[in-house]
Amino acid sequence: MLIVIYGEDTYRSREWLHELVLKFKEKFDPQGYNVNSFTRNSELAELRSAITAPPFLGTKRMVICERFFETLGKKEDTEEVLAQIPESTIVIVWEDGDEKSFAK
């Protein structure tokens, strides 16, 4: 599953992101073992590994990537990573509404 959070209202979008994480932990992973968060300084290999990894002692995994398009850089990399999302993984892409993020 892929969820994209995008908009200029970063306060509300971050609040929604936080709410999604809390609901995920409540329903699937109270300890937080299966929640991974990445920022624009993350390596592509780390992100790909987290997305494709099976859940640890659970049924679902959540991977949050802030500024996803800045992290990946190329369209080919984006398509490749998104095509590898298994059914057990929820990927949340958070973008701050800055048009430079999508210009690449």
Chart the SSEs and their pairings:
Elements: E1 2-6, H1 10-27, E2 35-38, H2 44-52, E3 61-66, H3 68-72, H4 75-83, E4 89-95
Parallel strand pairs: 1-4, 2-3, 3-4
User: Number of helical runs?
Assistant: 4
**CA-based shape:** globular
Biggest sheet record: 4 strands, parallel
Q: Got a strand count? A: 4
Overall structural class, as computed from helix and strand content, comes to alpha/beta
Q: Roughly how much helix do the residues carry, as a percent range?
A: 25-40%
- Radius of gyration from CA coordinates: 13 Å
**Percentage beta strand:** 15-25%
| N-end to C-end Cα span | 24 Å
Widest sheet: strand order? 1-4-3-2
Low-confidence stretches: none
The averaged pLDDT comes out at 85
What is the helix/strand order? Answer: EHEHEHHE
Label this structure with key terms:
alpha/beta, four-stranded parallel β-sheet, globular
Please characterize this protein's 3D structure.
The structure is a single chain. The chain has helices at residues 10-27, 44-52, 68-72, 75-83; strands at residues 2-6, 35-38, 61-66, 89-95. The protein starts with a strand and ends in a 9-residue tail after the last strand. 39% of the residues lie in helices and 21% in strands. The protein has a four-stranded parallel sheet, sandwiched between helices. The chain has four helices and four strands. It is of the alpha/beta class and 104 residues long. The model has no long low-confidence stretch (mean pLDDT 85).
